[in-house]
Amino acid sequence: MAKTRPGRRDVTSYTIRGTNKVVRVGDCVMMRASEVNSPPYVAKVLKIEADKRNSVRVHVRWYYRPEESFGGRREFHGAKELFLSDHFDIQSADTIEGKCTVHSFEKYTHLENVSHEDYYCRFEYRPTSRVLLPNLVVVYCKCEQPYNPDTLMIQCEECEEWYHPHCVGMTIEQVKQLDRFVCPDHAPVEEPDHAPVEEPDHAPVEEPRHPLANDYAESKPCKN
């Protein structure tokens, strides 16, 4: 943790201007973006300090949105997904707009209701080296993509694998009408219908053969 500079003192909390919300060390906060109409920055507060005039600054560790990382946003990234970075900074506490919660990925997927203050994190990002950790994650479906909690998936009752509807040729409306689902790899194979072969009620009459008839035409196998 950074040392407190001369003329400043550590404080235990900060009340967001114009609200009664109190920020403490360890909290996650939304901070005003530098660009108009942009979503707020998200950071974790590591330290709060004030000077003699009670001007408060916060030491933070930034979260990055997928589109802010090298490679950008991909299909499996959820709308509320953040990457914890190793980018540390010091900002004026006046830029804090509100508090938020950055959940673990597992906890986020079990939330009954997701508010605008809820986010989740399952990756760490190194902006300098452009590295995303971990570099190996569990993948699902035929497309072999990590799970996106914003996207509907269905589970096969046979293999218990999860699939995106469009990857198995279905629409969301069709999926909602299903009582059970079996993926194409485990769906029962339908036997083709065969018409019954009728046995002749008399011996076939042998046709007269031409002297030059080819022996290959004498008898041809037939499928029963």
The run of helices and strands is EEEEEEEEHEEEEH
Q: What is the total tally of β strands? A: 12
Overall structural class, as computed from helix and strand content, comes to mainly beta
Strand order, largest beta sheet:
4-5-6-7-9-8
Which of globular, elongated, flat, extended, rod-shaped describes the shape? elongated
Helix count?
A: 2
What percentage of residues falls in helices of 4 or more residues?
A: under 10%
Alpha carbon gap, first and last residue: 84 Å
List low-confidence stretches. 207-224
Radius of gyration, Cα only, in angstroms?
Answer: 33 Å
Strand content: 25-35%
If you had to describe this structure to a student in words, what would you say it looks like?
- The chain is mainly beta and 224 residues long.
- The chain has 2 helices and 12 strands, in the order E-E-E-E-E-E-E-E-H-E-E-E-E-H.
- It has a 6-stranded mixed β-barrel with strand order 4-5-6-7-9-8. The protein has a two-stranded antiparallel ribbon with strand order 2-3.
- The termini are far apart.
- The C terminus is likely disordered.
Concise structural overview:
The protein is 4% helix and 31% strand. By secondary structure, the chain is mainly β. The protein has a 6-stranded mixed barrel with strand order 4-5-6-7-9-8. A two-stranded antiparallel sheet has the order 2-3.
Key attributes of the depicted protein:
6-stranded mixed barrel, mainly beta, two-stranded antiparallel sheet, disordered C terminus, 224 residues
Element layout with pairings:
Layout: E1 8-10, E2 13-15, E3 22-24, E4 28-31, E5 41-51, E6 56-64, E7 81-92, E8 96-104, H1 105-109, E9 118-126, E10 131-133, E11 154-155, E12 162-163, H2 172-176
Parallel strand pairs: 7-9, 8-9
Antiparallel strand pairs: 1-5, 2-3, 4-5, 4-8, 5-6, 6-7, 9-10, 11-12
